[in-house]
């Protein structure tokens, strides 16, 4: 019998609030590191030097081609067996963070690459013709424009990440899913506590959905007025605040 | 880096430039010399290689053989045991920073205002103080007639305005040489005049310019020397009166007959 009282009892308990917090910070840190790893992987992969592009390809091949669950298990149970010296460093937290970040890096690499590829090649040429070197041009000219293409799929990736953290339950990390199953088993109320966990997942993904919406609307060129744009000064804001007509970058227009 | 003998007034020298795209030869032994303050206009049918030549002069295209010197300094390559090896990125970038390039499609940075477009390279490449660069940028905007567009983003500008910002952006680097790649070809006819006016003024001020264009009026008015290219070679060159009024070659006559 489903017992609503148990749901009510656990819904706003410190236990689940803490578990939700764990889920959240694991997801946030993994996503941020994943983006950073992905950025470097993408740049490596697009390099004309094979000694840079081949390792990146290999990395992406490995991490996209095998299950995250297996990667997590390998890291947590396999690595300490082969490298006993690493035992003190492999905790449930470090294993989860490393596995999620590395895996996410491979996916982000493809997203970043698509973003960079979407920028008009004329932009790099213009930057070069002004004496900018590749690194400076990438940072100042290409990436801010690629960001516009990268951000929407990045939002979806983070939505996924919030739920992917549940895999860490197999190594005993007390995030939402593991908390629900452990306490559910103890009190024979699996169903009720999994419903509580689901509730928290929905809260997290819904709030993120609103944030994602807000960011994407801010990046929508047609929403911004000139004064709003003028007020934007920080790099992050510039990244998201620049404009172009739908369907193409300014500069391509007016032909 | 190899220093060539110069007589002090030679800005650009290209020697026997050869460039292939796959099996297609787009430049077949081009020789070109531009002296300081000279305006050289390159005309010719599309596919004749004139844009490629201009891009080679900025090392946006690699060349298969030949030499390009900017003020006596070899561009893009250095010689190692008699063979050409592509130069270090830093060296190429330094030489490029002295050459302004104006693209057919403007290539303004869409995430920056007109002013930010102009100050970007002087601040981040030449590391000049921002306040000083900004002042110069505003003066340049005034020069191209767009002083009121400093805070406007490129997509809010007409093509002609964008191109004038692009010219100002190139000029902000105080280039020794300006290259114009069909700078007015992407513009609506009524916007062409404003851009040509800016180019004309630049020429009068003594800027060294290599201009690829289809604007024969401009070529006749402003050029010190006109070069007619066809099928990867220079067919004819000389002062505009000679090339336009007394073309020596059949192909030149044909081309001029078609467009005039």
Structure description:
The complex is a heterodimer of chains A (255) and B (260). Chain A has 255 residues and is mainly α. Chain A has eleven helices and no strands. Chain A has helices spanning 4-11, 14-45, 50-65, 68-82, 92-118, 121-129, 134-164, 176-187, 190-219, 226-231, 235-241. Chain A is flat and about 70 Å long. Chain B has 260 residues and is an alpha/beta fold. Chain B is 36% helix and 27% strand. In chain B, the strands form three sheets. Chain B has a six-stranded mixed sheet, with helices on both faces. A four-stranded antiparallel sheet of chain B has the order 2-1-4-5, with helices on one face. Mean pLDDT of chain B is 92; it is low at 1-7.
In which order are the strands of the major sheet of chain B placed? 8-9-10-3-11-12
DSSP strand content of chain A: under 5%
By secondary-structure content and strand pairing, the structural class of chain A works out as: mainly alpha
What distance separates the N and C termini of chain A? 69 Å
Sheet with the most strands, sense and barrel status of chain A: none
Report the structural category of chain B: alpha/beta
Tell me about the biggest sheet of chain B? 6 strands, mixed
Number of helices of chain A: 11
Shape descriptor of chain A: flat
Largest interface (CB within 8 Å) is between: A-B, 36 and 43 residues
Please state the oligomeric state of the protein chains shown.
heterodimer
Per DSSP, the total helix count of chain B is: 9
Radius of gyration of chain B, in angstroms, nearest whole number: 18 Å
- Please give the share of residues in helix of chain A: over 70%
